[in-house]
């Protein structure tokens, strides 16, 4: 593990690697170890030595931090001022099994490199939408600054957005600047019990269409419901499904909106409500995919499709394979654990048949990962464009080779 403690040290390491043709796996705290295609990297370059909050303008709600700063440190500083990262970055350690001394802490650079976004994504945008500026080192060892401290239109290639979600394949992040938002005064969750997947999709669509500002919409089938809140989610019967809808904001506003939402949802099924503390715990568990943080390496897919077809995809797959699943983002994000084979070809064929989307293999045994592309294969034209971008930023091809394709 190569751990530079300054940007100049990192640039020196990368220049040497490029000159010698040494392949580098890029990471932060390495908490997503085992994710992506297996690479041929010979060394690992970590940003965890580049840590610390550089600047925090509380009134402007903008923070700049070195890429290796632990997310916990970022969140602690924000908590003191009742501010937050609106996109709710998930903690991958549970599903990836990367707790313990062999691994570090999730880092803020890793959050943006993975574009890690949680349940509020459907109203607040993804991690990249909060990213204002970056500093990174390209494959020639050159330090580059992109973006700034305010949201503005750009002309040409937006490197800030390009690096977000690139998983260390285009450059080594050293610093990030991002906007934050105030923490809502309170949060409440409306729970609709007993809906099957198709009925839940209709209920969530109806809720999102209401002027009540739903900030989270998820459906938890009977197979996973008992794994949330230690089995304390309300239901009309043991094992019944739960469709959960989150409301946030000022206490008086949330109370009024919750009444309106509950009144409409009663047409779909029995309704109950969760208070602030239970709601915060529930949505954190949804964010971190708690049911599948099970200590296994069973293949786990993160599938993004149109919200109206997520349940159709799962129903079709269950006719041919063992599948357990639950739904976030109003049904548009499907977390899907396979009981045996990942069934990649079958899954992607059904996704195409249902109008398209993306399937990402989050984890699997190494022998399975070696033969299964982790990311959705790109159309030829997009793949050619991606290759040209990669060649410009990393001409020697030393950063995380083959990780994304």
Automatic annotation (TrEMBL):
Coiled coil: none annotated. The keyword Flavoprotein applies. Pfam families: FAD_binding_4. It comes from the Bacteria. Residues 1-183 form the FAD-binding PCMH-type domain. InterPro entries: FAD-bd_PCMH, FAD-bd_PCMH-like_sf, FAD-bd_PCMH_sub2, FAD-linked_Oxase-like_C, Oxid_FAD_bind_N. GO terms for molecular function: catalytic activity; FAD binding. Gene3D superfamilies: 3.30.465.10. Transmembrane segments: none annotated. SUPFAM superfamilies: FAD-binding/transporter-associated domain-like, FAD-linked oxidases, C-terminal domain. Keywords: FAD, Flavoprotein. This is Glycolate oxidase FAD binding subunit. It comes from Xaviernesmea oryzae.
